[in-house]
């Protein structure tokens, strides 16, 4: 890992000079000023939704990772949020990258990141994407089927492989992955033998306990199982493995501390330092979630007795697809820049039962029900903190409302907690 300057000014300087970030568009602000900044954008924007991305938030999380899991190299999972600003920041901070496709590899390489800082961590890849990885020198990938070994042998015979195993426990993950990916215990030996016959080096093991995991014990069980696979490889006469990839599943906050303690102790037990194993992980949510705040405009209102119904210009088919695909719950705060300029955060005022709809003509496009919100007007704003993970990344342009068109404003907040109005 790079030594990241502790001094905020030096850190800002590092990020301002990062390829892919335009120093002129990074606004340094004090924490108190974040709300002010958000308001100033909302007032001058043509009422379109926008994101605020806090570079200081992501830099603080990077520090945090380096302190809590110092031996584990992070490969940021681009799929979680491929926004150019977070990719550029992660590259400048010294992160490596987990890419799932040709396009993700291209966007990371475009920042000047060398291909040996990328893992193509998709166990089932289109052949054309494998050929692309071969052409640009991305030489580490994952697999969990014989068919994938054959594709890699044909399209990228110089690639090294990690065998992805299915963890026995999904850690209570919000998005378990084990029903789709990971070799079962009885499949491991045949897969290792197939790779050996194909003359492809299996250099290590990877797993993912599932995204949004809550029970950290799942890491211990998976790390222990990975050790078993290292031993199986030796028994089968393969060259000794030397890479362990513990995947993602981390969420920033107290649960990360708990996960780090569990991971460190399992690593100490099953992969002690003297084995000289390269340890890596593929965190996505950990870095992206809290660094992005979304502001949306109220474009419609209906009053039904005491119920207030609002339409906003982003929804389930856009950033809030996380409610469906990521099983997320979202929360919002009012910013009444039109109806209540003197007290835009509406503290202390009367609240109403409210429903918030997205902009498309589908009733499924309902973002929130049973919310307590003030009596807002068309033109007021709702602010959604912690909207960086699996939001814009999976949005569509259904009904012509394009998530890809949402502007991101990059700031560097003094406190670096990333989240406006939290
Ligand atoms: N690596 C792989 C292979 C994944 O499929 C995912 C998420 O689906 C991630 C990493 C990132 O996981 P998380 O956001 O939970 O850290």
From TrEMBL:
Record-linked CDD domains: PLPDE_III_ODC
Orn/DAP/Arg decarboxylase 2 N-terminal domain span: 58-288
Catalytic activity line of the entry: L-ornithine + H(+) = putrescine + CO2
Superkingdom of origin organism: Eukaryota
Pfam families membership: Orn_Arg_deC_N
InterPro entries: Ala_racemase/Decarboxylase_C (IPR009006), De-COase2_CS (IPR022657), De-COase2_N (IPR022644), De-COase2_pyr-phos_BS (IPR022653), Orn/DAP/Arg_de-COase (IPR000183), Orn_de-COase (IPR002433), PLP-binding_barrel (IPR029066)
EC number: 4.1.1.17
Keyword vocabulary terms for this entry: Lyase, Pyridoxal phosphate
Listed cofactors: pyridoxal 5'-phosphate
EC top class, as a word: lyase
This protein's pathway: Amine and polyamine biosynthesis; putrescine biosynthesis via L-ornithine pathway; putrescine from L-ornithine: step 1/1
Record keyword Lyase present: yes
TM stretches of this protein: none
Similarity comment: family membership: Belongs to the Orn/Lys/Arg decarboxylase class-II family.
Subunit composition and interactions: Homodimer. Only the dimer is catalytically active, as the active sites are constructed of residues from both monomers.
Protein known as: ornithine decarboxylase
Organism in which the protein naturally occurs: Citrullus colocynthis
Higher taxonomy: Eukaryota, Viridiplantae, Streptophyta, Embryophyta, Tracheophyta
């Amino acid at each position: 890992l790079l030594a990241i300057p502790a001094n905020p000014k030096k850190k800002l300087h590092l990020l301002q000079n990062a390829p892919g970030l335009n120093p002129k568009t990074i606004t340094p602000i004090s924490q108190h000023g974040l709300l002010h900044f958000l308001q100033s954008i909302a007032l001058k924007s043509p009422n379109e939704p926008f994101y605020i991305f806090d570079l200081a938030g992501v830099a603080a999380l990077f520090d945090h990772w380096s302190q809590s899991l110092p031996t584990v190299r992070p490969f940021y999972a681009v799929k979680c949020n491929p926004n150019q600003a977070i990719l550029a920041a992660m590259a400048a901070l010294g992160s490596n990258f987990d890419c799932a496709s040709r396009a993700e590899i291209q966007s990371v390489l475009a920042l000047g990141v060398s291909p040996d800082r990328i893992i193509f961590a998709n166990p089932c890849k289109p052949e054309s994407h494998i050929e692309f990885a071969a052409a640009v020198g991305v030489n580490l990938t994952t697999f969990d089927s014989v068919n994938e070994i054959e594709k890699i042998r044909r399209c990228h015979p110089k690639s090294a492989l990690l065998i992805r195993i299915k963890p026995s426990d999904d850690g209570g993950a919000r998005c378990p992955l084990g029903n789709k990916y990971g070799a079962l215990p009885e499949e491991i030996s045949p897969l290792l033998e197939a790779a050996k016959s194909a003359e492809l080096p299996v250099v290590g093991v990877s797993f993912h306990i599932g995204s949004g995991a809550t029970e950290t014990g799942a890491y211990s069980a998976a790390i222990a199982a990975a050790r078993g696979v290292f031993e199986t490889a030796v028994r089968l006469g393969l060259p000794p493995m030397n890479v362990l990839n513990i995947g993602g599943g981390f969420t920033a906050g107290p649960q990360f501390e708990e996960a780090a303690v569990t991971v460190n102790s399992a690593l100490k037990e099953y992969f002690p330092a003297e084995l000289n194993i390269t340890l890596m992980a593929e965190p996505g949510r950990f870095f992206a979630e809290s660094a992005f705040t979304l502001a949306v405009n109220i474009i419609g209102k209906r009053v039904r007795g005491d119920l207030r119904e609002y339409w906003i210009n982003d929804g389930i088919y856009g950033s809030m697809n996380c409610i469906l695909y990521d099983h997320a719950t979202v929360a919002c705060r009012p910013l009444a820049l039109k109806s209540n300029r003197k007290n835009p955060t509406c503290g202390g005022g009367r609240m109403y039962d409210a429903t918030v709809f997205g902009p498309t003509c589908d009733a499924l496009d309902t973002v929130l029900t049973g919310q307590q919100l003030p009596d807002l007007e068309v033109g007021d704003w709702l602010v959604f903190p912690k909207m960086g993970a699996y939001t814009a990344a999976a949005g569509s342009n259904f009904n012509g409302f394009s998530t890809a068109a949402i502007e991101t404003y990059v700031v560097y907040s003094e406190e670096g907690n990333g989240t406006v109005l939290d």
